[in-house]
Design brief:
alpha+beta; 7 helices; 223 residues; 24% strand
């Protein structure tokens, strides 16, 4: 099966036809909108502050207290950490982000490792945490356990920097396999679509933003 990520499996779940054109045929591109560009800028500001001590730009002043608190945590800090996991007959093993054997890949915004304990944060720039999905934390925690065998506990969180909301979760090594299988049902459906070549379109509220304009469900975006 094609290597997957949290964002790609969510795209498939949203609409298999959109996934096909973006990830398989690759005949359309999803051009980042204003919200996506804003999110990228926020991530870069947080990364440069923790990594290099670069001051947070004034337009992102609201996130200074949050990032300063994260930066004060003791331990080895890793920003925008790229992880790859390979799935074998005997379990999960670490690999590189673009390794030929990669099964899952993801990028962790911030990880602080201190002995057997780690802190993990994923920045979010949505207006609120209404649609927060802790499964994303599960995947990243599982991958960290694979790559860092000394880790026993990970305190993780989805951090909504605009609304100042925190969705915390604690992960333990004994549940690593469960964390990496939280999208097992979706992956089975994805594998079925790959084998059959059937990528059925799915109508939803985001159809107006979809780059697959020839789809039967595509409609002009309301302005």
């Amino acid at each position: 099966m094609t290597a997957w990520s949290y964002s790609s499996i969510k795209t498939f779940d949203q609409c298999p036809k959109k996934y096909y054109h973006l990830k398989v045929a690759k005949d359309v591109k999803d051009i980042p909108g204003e919200a996506a560009l804003y999110g990228t800028a926020v991530h870069e500001a947080a990364e440069h502050f923790v990594k290099d001590g670069t001051p947070i730009p004034e337009k992102f002043a609201f996130m200074r207290p949050i990032v300063e608190k994260l930066d004060s945590i003791e331990g080895d800090k890793h920003c925008e950490l790229r992880l790859g996991v390979s799935k074998t007959d005997t379990g999960y093993v670490p690999t590189t982000f673009f390794g030929k054997d990669v099964w899952w890949r993801g990028i962790v915004d911030l990880v602080v490792i201190n002995g057997a304990k780690a802190y993990m944060v994923d920045y979010k720039t949505g207006k609120n945490a209404r649609y927060a999905d802790p499964k994303q934390l599960d995947l990243m925690a599982g991958a960290l356990f694979v790559h860092y065998p000394e880790l026993e506990t990970i305190k993780s969180a989805l951090l909504y920097v605009v609304s100042n909301e925190l969705i915390p979760k604690t992960h333990t090594r004994d549940k690593m396999g469960m964390y990496l299988s939280v999208f097992e049902d979706e992956l089975e459906r994805l594998e079925g679509a790959e084998l059959s070549g059937v990528w059925n379109p799915k109508s939803g509220p985001l159809c107006g933003w979809c780059p697959v304009v020839e789809c039967e469900h595509h409609r002009p975006r309301r302005r």
